[in-house]
Amino acid sequence: MKKLQNKPTRSVVHKRIIFSLVCLVLGFILSYSYSLSSSKKLSGEPVSSKYFEQEERYREDLILQKERNKELSTELGARQQQVREIEKSLSGSEEQYESLIQEAEDLRLVLGVLPAKGKGIKVQLEDAEYNPSSVNPNDYIVHESHVFQVLNELKISGSEAITINGQRLHANSYIKCNGPVITIDGEQFPAPFVIEAIGDPTVLVPSLQLTGGVLDQLVNDNIVVTIEEKSKIEMPAL
């Protein structure tokens, strides 16, 4: 007798076909994913390239912003000049306008928003030579109190604008002593301290040289003082 072979039913054949299709699709997906990953690795693109590109964009934006700030600063100066010209044009109408305009100019000089130019004086303050017999080194060092003495006398005597080592002073300037240096509006300056003031030298010099005045007090504190008249001093605006 012949043995009967069991033939697969239609449902079994159908399932096998579906299973083969699923395996084929999965194989294609895995192959495509692997090839895509390999191509990215072979491209040699660094992982941090996006970060450097972003940093470069920020740097370019910063440069553009600085240029824009410079343009705005120039435009502001031009606008201020226009305002001053308008004020001067109005001064011819009535006499009181002229005094108001002059007062406004004086205030701008005090605030430091205008460049200053004119004759004046230069005062230089230097530390005295080292004295081995002195126990306290502060006995021959220039301090902020000495600088304040000169500044106050110059302001009282009518100086229009003042600089210390080239640093323009304004109405809210502050001076602080830090050992051998002084800090002016956040900037540090070592001795010697050169103070320039625009004003009438025939008034400023005698005010410092009064008997028992600023000059005598500085000399008593072992400060080396030099006073010089200047025919022309120029100071930039802040």
TrEMBL record:
Coiled coil: 83-110
Pfam families, sorted: DUF881
InterPro entries per record: DUF881
Organism expressing this protein natively: Paenisporosarcina macmurdoensis
Lineage: Bacteria, Bacillati, Bacillota, Bacilli, Bacillales
Family of the protein in this entry: Belongs to the UPF0749 family.
Keywords annotated in UniProt: Coiled coil
Protein name per UniProt: DUF881 domain-containing protein
The keyword Membrane is annotated on this UniProt entry: no
